[in-house]
Structures are given as C-alpha cells and as structure tokens.
Amino acid sequence: MAILTCLPGLEVAVEVDGQRAREYEADPDEVESRAKEISYYSFQQTPDHKIPYVLKYIEAKAGKPFAFILDATNFHDFKKTEPKIYWCCSMDGFHSGYRRVSVGTENKRSCCKTGSQATGWKRHTFHFGSLDVREGGDGTQAEAAKHYGTLVVNLYLRVKTGGVIPFRDIDGPIPILSVGEKDLKGKAVDSKVSFESEPIDRPGQVATSRNVDPHHRPIAVFEFRYRTMEGLLQEGIVSRPVEKAEGVHVEEEYQVHPRVKPENEERRGVKKERPMDPTSSPLCYKLRRLENGKVEIDLTDN
Length: 302
What we know:
By secondary structure, this protein is mainly beta. The chain is 11% helix and 37% strand.
C-alpha cells in the first residue's frame, strides 16, 4: 500500500486480476527528482512527507484486468464541511473523471465512461497489454512516451457548486499501437493499458463541483510504474536470482551411478598365496623406482 503521513489512514494500491499487486521500492533519487517536477496545492504537511508524492513499481500481467484501490476505511476526513477530497486516475497519460472519496470504506475504480450524444457512449474496463517496441524512433512519441507505463492517482480539493448537469462529453482513450525504442529514453517499458470497451446508454446526471485551487494542482500524487517481471529485472527494480552451482556429493554420485564390476572380477574372487617350501632357496628380487614414484619388483635371476 502506498501511504502519506499527511493523509493518515488513507491507502492507495493497484489490484491486478483480483489480487493486490506487490509493490517494489523506487530509487530514492528517482523519487526526489520526479517529486520536484510536480506542482502541488499545499493544505497540510508533515516532516516525513513535505512533498506529498509516492512512487512504487508493480508487475504488469498481459491480458489481466486491474483496478485502482483507494482505501479510506481508516481515514478520517480532515474537514466536516466543504471542500472534500476527490480522486482522479491517469493511465499512460489518459485521465478519467473526478470522483469524490467515500470516507470509511474502500473506493475502487476498474472502468471509466466516455462518449458524446453524436458518437454514442462506452464503458472501458482496464486491462494490461503487451507494448510493441520498435527499433529506433523519430522522436515524435517522446513527449507522450513519458507517461507510458504509469498509473497515477491524483487527489484534489473540490467543492460542490450546487448544480446538476447531464453527463458531459468526454473523448475516449487513444490506443497505443507501438512506440520507438529511442522515445522511451532507456526505460524498460514493455506493457501498456488496453481498454475493453462496450456500448452503454448515456450515463445519468452528475453533480457539479470545482477545484479549490484555480491552477488545478493536486494535493497529493500516488504513482505506480508497471512493467512485466522481465522489465523490472532489466531496470534493476528487482534483483535477478543467483543461480547456485549444482554439486553432487560423492556418496550421492555413487548411488546415482554405481560402479559395475567386470564379469571376470566377479568370477576371480580372492587370490590365494602358494604355500612356501622350506627346502626351497630364498626368493631374490630387485626393487626399481619408476619416474612416477611407484616401485617395480624385478624377479629375474640376473
């Protein structure tokens, strides 16, 4: 779970195929560098999180659905009246609409709605897909590619304006077909968000609200960068397992490959010595040391 001490009790996560995704820590320098790029609307801070930004890495699984989880079960709203906290999700740069955070429960988002009266309306459920990475690249996707492989949850302070309006027209997500390798700037982005779409009736009316900050800056940002496990290994987020050298104990080797005795050895048995004749003359022999250190016995008469 990604948490911020400035929002105690509020936890954000990504659920992949019905299970909370395991989170991997990002390099502290990377977190600090990214946090400085974001402009925030300051409302309350703590010494631990002067910059309300969290960055985690997760594993993407091609073809599997995912959902954003904002768990406010143990979160106590810091204000009894307006403004309230709203959340907005971003996937590869595509932004969904605002939703008010329901305090005391788990908020979940696995789809979004887009369309217009002219083109019709659709519901898009979130899935991971494989990204086609081409060799080279002409730089035309460099700006868009900055957001590839990222899921972001932005929190805003908003107030209701008292109005109710029809569901507004929203452009649908633009599919990512492929990307040039150079446009990724060395990042091991190998996955994308794919949307499974189905036609729906026009959504109902919605209550109007506006941001407290005229510059529309978030009060907190939770970012999740997703890769396949191979991508996480390539970027050094996950360490590759060390392969242990396989060794077999002598006794184990013997049990696996027992030595087979030659047939003549089986039949030969133990060689018996001849009994010594007391009337015979003593046996004479010579010892000769060989180059390999062994000793040779010479039984010839001369």
